[in-house]
Amino acid sequence: MYRNIFDTHAHYTSRWFRADRPELLSVLPWLGVEAVVDCGTDYDSTLQSIALAERYPWIYTAAGIHPESIIEEDASTNARFGGDWKAEMDAIRPLYSHPKVVAVGEVGLDYHWPVPKDAQLAMFEAHLQLALELDMPIIVHDREAHADTYALLAKYRPRGVVHCYSGSAEDAVRLVEQGMYIGFTGACTFKGAKRALKAIEAIPADRLLLETDCPYMAPTPHRGKRCDSSLIPFTAEVMARVKGMDVQQMLDITCANAARLFGVNI
Ligand SMILES: [Zn+2]
Q1: What is 103-116 written as a DSSP string?
Q2: Per residue in 15-28, pLDDT tens?
Q3: What distance in angstroms lies between residue 11's CA and the mean position of ligand 1's atoms?
Q4: What is this structure's pTM?
Q5: Rounded mean pLDDT of 212-228?
Q6: How far is it, in rounded angstroms, from Cα 66 to Cα 184?
Q7: 207: helix, coil or strand?
Q8: 36 Cα–ligand 1 center, Å
Q9: CATH architecture, domain defined by 5-262
Q10: pLDDT band, residue 266 (cuts 50/70/90)
Q11: Can you name the residues that pair with 7 across neighbouring β-strands?
C-alpha cells in the first residue's frame, strides 16, 4: 500500500459526498492519505470545511471565494451576501486565524463561465493582496484565463499553487521561478494530456503538487466516476513515469512539497 499521499485540493463539502462523507473521510489515513487541503469556494463552504478540519486531524482548509460563486445563486456570495463579495471577504477574514486554515483559496479567474470580468479580476486581486498581507499561500484557479492570471501573479508574486495546471511548459517554468508550485489532477492521466506531461517534465520535482479536485477529475481508469483522495496514486504514476521515479518516491516528494508550502507537519 502507498503512503504519504497529500491531496492539496479537494472539495469534500460537495453534495456528491453527502451520503457517505464520514465513512470516507474517517478511513483516509488507512488508505495512505496523510493530509488533505479542502478548499472553500464561498463563506458557507469555508465554514463547512473548517467543521471537517476540526473533526478530522488530517484535513486542513483553504478559505476564500471562487470566481464562479459570483454568478452561482446557491453560493453564499449571493444567497447570504446579495452579491457583495467584499462583505463576504470581510466575513471570511477572521477565519484565517483558525489553526486549521492554511491557505487563501480557492480563488482566481474563470473565463469559461460567464462571470463578469471586472468583478472577478477585482476579487482575485483583493485575495492576492490578502495572501501577501497574511503571509499565507494562495490556491489559484485559472480556467481559460492564463494571460490575466499570470499577469496578476507576476505583479504580486505570492507563494502558492496554480491548481489543475493547464498552461504551457514555458509558463510553468516562469511561475516556478516566481515562487509558485504547480498542481496536477487526474486530468494528466487522460488521453491527450500531452501539454500537462510537458509541463511536469519542464519543472523541478520539488515544485510539483498532487491533487484531486474531488469530486471531479477522477484519474484513468476511474475517469467519470466520483473522485476521492485515495485515487491520487494513479495520477502520481503518470507523474513518476515522466520524472523517471517510482510511484512512492513521487508521493514522498510531493507530500514534502505540500507540507512545506502549507506549513503542515507530517
Ligand atoms: Zn477546486
Answers
A1: EEEEEEEETTTT--
A2: 999 999 999 999 99
A3: 6
A4: 0.97
A5: 95
A6: 18
A7: helix
A8: 13
A9: Alpha-Beta Barrel (3.20)
A10: confident
A11: 36
